[in-house]
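Human: Here is a favour to ask of a fellow structure person. Comparing notes only helps if you start from a blank page. I am asking you to supply a protein in sequence and structure-token form. Write it directly below this note and I will take it from there.

Assistant:
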Amino acid sequence: MRTGSGKKAIVVGTITAFDPPHWFAHTMRFTTYDDPECEVIYELKQLPGGVECTLIVEGMPVGTKTAKDMQSGGTMVVNRLKSIVETGKPATGVRVLYWIFDKMEFVLPKRTEVDNWPMKNKNFD
């Protein structure tokens, strides 16, 4: 998860499993914390009239800053995905939040610069 300019990374991770349309998993680590990475798994199950989405987080050490942020962050992620699937774009509040993040990028610590984080492709287009 990079800022609009692509110069800073808030979350880094690697895709670990992908079985469309049933399963998607990736590692994740907040670049602002020293917590170890954990794995986030999205399970999708087709139901009459819709799709059930289950978000599972594995390997997250209890009591860490990551654990605290993920308690509310997981719900926010699922709600963003739901909005994108249903409308083709994130909800208005999320778009405003992204705009604010974009304008406030300069306040992020140096450790969030993408040069500090190994990525296969730092220049996503």
